[in-house]
């Protein structure tokens, strides 16, 4: 995995799912309530030598009722790219909000 010196985050649009199971529901009779979010993401970074990387994948985060993270699973792929192959640059313009990034 590349050592990150500079990162531009670009979470994919329409790929977040949030679900909550309230405490006391039949599904949580033996375990505390869980709050989950699944995220599909991609970002670009470069290492200290100037090599650019595109990292993309999926993450699942699970939180307790107190808001503490109780579980994190991630599947992340790192791909070496040239600077000319970059497609994520700084903050997105308002006109680009809601437009998904291709993941391939």
Q: Summarize this, please?
A:
The chain is an all-beta fold.
Task: Please tell me about this protein's structure.
The protein contains no helices and five strands. Strands 1, 2, 3, 4 and 5 form a five-stranded antiparallel β-sheet that branches. With 104 residues, the protein is mainly β. The chain has one domain (6-80): Nuclear Transport Factor 2, Chain: A, CATH 3.10.450.50. The protein has strands spanning 6-11, 17-21, 34-46, 52-63, 69-81. The chain starts with 5 loop residues before the first strand and ends in a 23-residue tail after the last strand. 4% of the residues are buried.
- Give the overall form: extended
The CATH architecture can be given as Roll
Strand content: over 45%
Report the end-to-end length measured between terminal Cα atoms: 19 Å
Number of helices: 0
Sheet bearing the most strands, described?
5 strands, antiparallel
Structural class designation:
mainly beta
**Helix proportion:** under 10%
Q: Which segments are poorly predicted (pLDDT under 50) over 5 or more consecutive residues?
A: 1-19, 22-29
According to CATH, the fold-level topology is Nuclear Transport Factor 2, Chain: A
Summarize model confidence as the mean pLDDT: 75
- How many individual domains? 1
CATH class: Alpha Beta
Q: Can you write the helix and strand succession as a string?
A: EEEEE
Radius of gyration: 17 Å
The total of beta strands comes to 5
């Amino acid at each position: 995995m590349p050592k990150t010196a500079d990162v531009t985050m670009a979470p994919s649009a329409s790929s977040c799912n949030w679900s909550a199971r309230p405490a006391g529901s039949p599904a949580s009779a033996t375990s505390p309530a869980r709050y989950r979010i699944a995220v599909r993401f991609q970002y670009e970074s470069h290492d200290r030598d100037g090599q650019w990387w595109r990292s993309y994948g999926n993450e699942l985060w699970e939180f307790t009722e107190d808001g503490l993270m109780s579980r994190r699973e991630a599947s992340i792929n790192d791909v070496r790219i040239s600077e000319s192959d970059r497609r994520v640059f700084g903050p997105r313009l308002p006109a680009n909000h809601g437009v998904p990034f291709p993941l391939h």
